[in-house]
Amino acid sequence: MAKTKQNVKKGPRKQGINKSCHSMNPDRPKDGLKGVAKPRTKSTINRLKMYKHFKAKRDRTGKVIIPAPFQSWVSSGTMARVEPNRKWFDNTRVVSQNALQKFQDEIGKSLKNPYDVIMKPSRLPVTLLNESSKQKRVHILDTEPFETTFGNKKLRKRPSLNAADENQLAEVIQETENSYSEEKDFNKIREDTGERDMVRDWIMNAGQSKRIWNELYKVIDSSDIVIMVLDARDPFGTRSKHVEEFLRNEKPHKHIVFVLNKVDLVPTWVTQRWVAILSTEYPTIAFHASLKHPFGKGALINLLRQFSKLHSERKQISVGIVGYPNVGKSSLVNALRSKKVCKVAPIAGETKVWQYVTLMRRIFLIDCPGVIHASVTNASETDTDKVLKGIVRVENVPSPEQYVTAVLERVQRDHLIRTYNITKWEDTDDFIRQFALKTGKLIKGGEPDVPNVSRMILNDWQRGKLPYYCPPPELPSKTEQQTNQLAAFDIQQDFSKIRVIPEFPGEENLLEAKEDKEDVEENSAVAVEDESGAVAGEEDEEESSSSSSSSSDDGLSDADQDEEEREKKPMKNMTSKERRRIIRQNRRHKVGSNFYERVNVKNRKR
C-alpha cells in the first residue's frame, strides 16, 4: 500500500532549550564571552524580538504556527476570560473624608509656599481635589422655577435675601457703594465732549512686539529656574506680574527667584528694606552687576547649586533671566561668568534674541530680551513712567523736554544742585536754559538747544547719575509661619559691603544693622554670602597708602611744602606756562605691562 500523510492537528511549536551561542538566545552561556561586557537579558531579547518579529507566523489557512514574542501559547481562536473573582472589582485603596481634607490642606500650603518644594509628587490625581466652579452664579430659574416659588403650589418657606436685617442690608449697600467705579460702569450714559486720545508714539510700544514675546516664552519653557531681575530704584515698577501669574498657574513646577540689581545706586537701608519685603513672596538676593567688584555673586551661585542638588536626577538645569529692558540682565550674566560673554549697553533693547551661556557643568544661563508687560497688567502707566523707567531709548523720544519736569519733581533739590551746580531756577524751562548755557549747548542766535539738553538730563537719570529711589513701604509684621519659613531658607548678605556710588547725605546711619544681626543669629543659614575679600583688601591698601602718604608728608622739606602750596593755588592766578607744567605733571603715563589692571580706565573697575 502507498504511504499517506495523516492530517493531524498540531498546536503551536514549543521551543525547548536552545544550545546555540547567538546573542538572541536567552539560554546561551553567559561566561567566557569574548568582546561582550554585559550580555543581553531575557527581557531585552524579548523586546528586540518584538521590534523585529512583531507578527505571528501563519499558514495558508491563517492558523498561527509560531506566535509573536508578546503573544501567549494559547491556541488560536481561544477566548481569554477574566477570572471570576471579587478581588478584581473591589477598591484597591480607600481614604476617609478627614484624611482627604487634611491632605488637601497640607499640599495646598506647600504649593503656595515658594520656600517649599515637593520632592516626590503623589501619583494620585491631586488636581481633582481643586474645586473649580465654571459658573460662579447659579441659574436661579433652574434651581427655583416660577411655579414652585409663587402661586398656590409654592414650596419656598422664606425668601433667600442677601441681608437678614436692616443693619446687614445697610452694610451691603455701603460696601457696594465703596467698590463702585465710575470708569468701569459701562451702563452709564456719558456726554460726548469731542475729546479723543492721541495716537501713542511708536517708541512707547517698544518691547511689546510678537517677536519679543516669543523669545520670552521660549526662555520660560526652556528654564527650570526663572530669575526675575528688578531695578533697586523702583522694584515694583519693574516687576512683571504677568510672568508671575503665568508661572504660578501654568508652570507651578518652575522656581522663581528675585534679583534686586543696581543696589549701588540706592542707600543701603533701602536695599535692606526691599529685600525684607520681597523675601516674603519669593527668595530675593541683592546684586551689583560688576566685573571687578560684584556683590551678591556668591549668594546667587550657592542658591543655583542648591537647586542643582535639589534636581539631582536631571543631567543639567537651565536658569532663565527675564525682566524689563535696561535692568541689567546681560550684565548679571557677565558678572556671574566674570567675563564679557553677553553684549551690554546702557540703553534699552541691546539684547535681540535669547542666548545660552554655560555657567558650570550642570548649570546653564539663558539671557532673554527685555519685555514690557505694562500694557497688559497696568493700563494706567503713562509715557512719562516708561521714559523714567529706562525702557525706551532717549534718542528716539520725541519732545524730550516734556519729561524733564517729572525728573525735577522726583529728584531732591540738593542732589540737582550738587550734580549740575545750578542753585536757583524758576521752572523747567529756566533750568534747561541755565544747563544749556553751562554746557555750551546753543543754537543760532544764542538760544538753548532744548531737545539735546533734555536728552542729556534724561540720560543722567537713566544711568544713575541723578540719585533717586522709590521709598520702600513699611515693613509688614511677620507672622509666626512666615518667620519659620524664612528661618528654613535664609540668605545672609552683608549689605555694608555694597559700594554705593551716589551720595545720600543724612541716610548713612539708617542701616538696620542690629535687627539684621539678630535675624542672622536666630535663623539657620542655608545659603551664605561668599563674598571675596577684595573690598577689605582694597580698604587696607587705601589705609596703608594714606598712612604712607601722611608719613612722607611729615618728612617733607620746607621747599617742597612751598612748592605744593604753590601748586594748590587756583589755576586762575597762574601764568599759562605754570598751568601747562602742572597739567604735564598730572598727566597719566602708560608705563608698565599691568597698567590697565592697576588704573581705572573707562570705568573698568566699576
From TrEMBL:
Q: How does it assemble?
A: Interacts with LYAR and RPL23A. Interacts with the nuclear importin-beta receptor and, at a lower extent, with importin-alpha.
Query: What's the main place this protein lives?
Result: nucleus
Q: What is this protein called?
A: Nucleolar GTP-binding protein 2
Q: Does the keyword section mention GTP-binding?
A: yes
User: Where in the sequence does UniProt note compositional bias of the Basic residues kind?
Assistant: 1-13, 578-591
Keywords carried by this UniProt record: GTP-binding, Nucleotide-binding, Nucleus
Function of the protein: GTPase that associates with pre-60S ribosomal subunits in the nucleolus and is required for their nuclear export and maturation. May promote cell proliferation possibly by increasing p53/TP53 protein levels, and consequently those of its downstream product CDKN1A/p21, and decreasing RPL23A protein levels.
Q: Where in the cell is it found?
A: Nucleus, Nucleolus
- GO MF term (any one): GTP binding
Q: Does the keyword rRNA-binding apply?
A: no
Q: Where is the composition biased (Low complexity)?
A: 545-554
Species annotation: Rhynocoris fuscipes
Q: Which PANTHER family match?
A: GTP-BINDING PROTEIN-RELATED, NUCLEOLAR GTP-BINDING PROTEIN 2
Q: Which InterPro entries match?
A: G_CP_dom, GNL2_CP_dom, GTP-bd, GTP-bd_ortho_bundle_sf, NOG2_N_dom, P-loop_NTPase, TRAFAC_YlqF/YawG_RiboMat
Cellular compartments per GO CC: nucleolus
- Where are the annotated segments for Disordered? 1-39, 512-606
Which residue windows does the record flag with biased composition (Acidic residues)? 518-544, 555-565
Q: Which family does it belong to?
A: Belongs to the TRAFAC class YlqF/YawG GTPase family. NOG2 subfamily.
| Domain CP-type G residues, every copy | 213-374
Gene3D superfamilies associated with the record:
1.10.1580.10, P-loop containing nucleotide triphosphate hydrolases
